[in-house]
User: Fold this.
Amino acid sequence: MRKIVTTLMILVGFGLMVLSYTALGTPQCNTSVACSNPRVAFAAGIFVVGIVVAFSSAIFYSVYKGPR
Amino acid sequence: MTADTLPTTDPGSIRRPNEELPQKIGQLSPSWIAFFIAMSVITAVGIYAYLLQINNGLIVTGLRGLGSMAGATWGLYVAYYVYFIGVSFAGITVAALIRIFRIEKLEPVARIGELLTVVSLILGALAIMADLEHPWRAIVNLFQYGRPQSPFFGTFTMVIAGYLFASLVYLYVTSRRDAAILAEHDSRFKGLYRILAAGYTDTREQRRTDRQVTFWLAITILPMLVIAHSTVGFVFGLQTGRPGWFGALQAPGFVVLAGVSGIGNLIMLAAIVRSATRTKGRITLDAFAWLGKLLLGLLITYLYFTAVEILTITYQPGATELNLSEALLEGTYAWIFWGAIVALVAAAALLTWQALTRRWSITVVFATGVLVNIGAVAKRYLIVVPSQTHGQLLPYSTGTYTPNWVEWAIIIGLFALGALMIGAFMKIFPIVPLEETDSP
Assistant:
C-alpha cells in the first residue's frame, strides 16, 4: 500500500511537470508573438503542483503507518 | 518499548519532564533578547523602506531605466537575489555528501545547512519581489503566464518552488526523530513536537525507511540543485544583446560560485552555532576541515573560470566589450573587481596552506568563509550591474548606478530577517541533530 501510493504520487507529480512543460506551456513555439502566452493559463502553476505532489510522496512514505 | 524498538543507553533518559531541553532551546538569555530586538529593529527599518518604495515606486531607489535614463534597471536587489539563491547551495550539497558518500563527520552540520538553504531561498524570493514595483501582479502572473521558453520559468518553478519545497521536505523528514525525542519532555513546545513527530517510533524499520527516504531525496534534489542554479545563470547568459552577460560560462560559473558562497556561509553559521549552543563536542574540527577542503575545490574552479572570463573579454574585444572590460579592470568597478579577486585568492591561499600542512583552525576556516562571501557578493554585483551601465550596444552614453539608502535598508533588513528566522528556529528546535544514543 505504502509503495503503491508513493509510486503513484511520484508518477502523478512527474506527469504534471512533463505535461505542463511540454503540452501546456508551448515550448515548441517561439517564433510568433501569438506564442507569448502558454497554451493553457496557469501552466507554470501546474508545474509547481507537480513538484509539490512528487516531493510530498517522501513525507507520505516516511509517515505512513497503515498496512504495507 | 516493543521488541523492535531500539534500546536507549540510559533508560532513565526516556522521560525527562523537568529537565532542560538541549542546546538551550526555550531559554532566552539577555544576549539573545538583545539579538532579537536588534534584528527586529533592523527588519522594521527594512519594512519601512519597502513600504516607502511600494507607495512611491522605484523612483525612491537608485534604479533608473537603461539607455536614455543612463541607469540600471537591475541593481542591488537582483545582485542579492542571485547571492541568496547561491547560498542555498549549502544544505543539499552537505546532505548529499553525508548520504551518498557517507561522510558522517558532517552529520552535525547537516541541519544547519538545510536550514540555511530554506532561509536563503525565502530571502532570495523576497529580494526579487523587492525589485518589482507591483509584486502582487508578479505573484499571479508568474503562475498564469509563465513560459517554459523563458529562463525565469526555470528560476520560478525549479528554484523558488521546487528547490524550496524539496528542501522543506528534506528538513522535515530529517527532523522527525528529534521532534519525537523532544515530545517526551514537558515543555511549552510539546504540542508542536508531537505534531512534527507525526507518530514517529524509533524502530529499526523506521530508521531504515528514513535512510531510504533521505538518500533518494538527496539523489533527486542534487540534479535539481544544478538545474536550478543553472537557470539563474541562464537569465544572464542567454541574453545575446548584452555584452558581459552572454556566454556559455555563466551557468556553470553560477553553480560553482553558489557552492563557494553557500559553503562559506555554512562554515560561518556552524562556527556561530557551535559557540552559541555549546555543541563544541559535536561540531568538531574535522567537520570544518571537510568543509574547508570542499570550499577550496570549488574556489579553485571558480578562480579558473574567472581567469578564462578575463582572458576572453580582453583578448580581442569589440568596442562595447572593451568599454566594459576597462570599466571592470581599471575604471568605475575596478575596486570592486580587484577587491573580490583579492578576497577570493586570499581565501584560497589560506585554505591551501591549511590543506598542505594538515593543520586546520576553525578561526582561519571561519575567516575564509567571510572572505569568500565578500568576494561572492562583489562578483554577483559585477555580474548584474556593469553590463547595463557600460555594455550598451545602442548609441547611448555610459550609465551610472549607485544604490541608495532605501535599497540598502531593504537588503540589510532581509539579512536581519534571515538572522531572526535562524535564531527563532534555534530557540524552538535543535539546530544540531540530537545524538544517536538519545531515543524517544
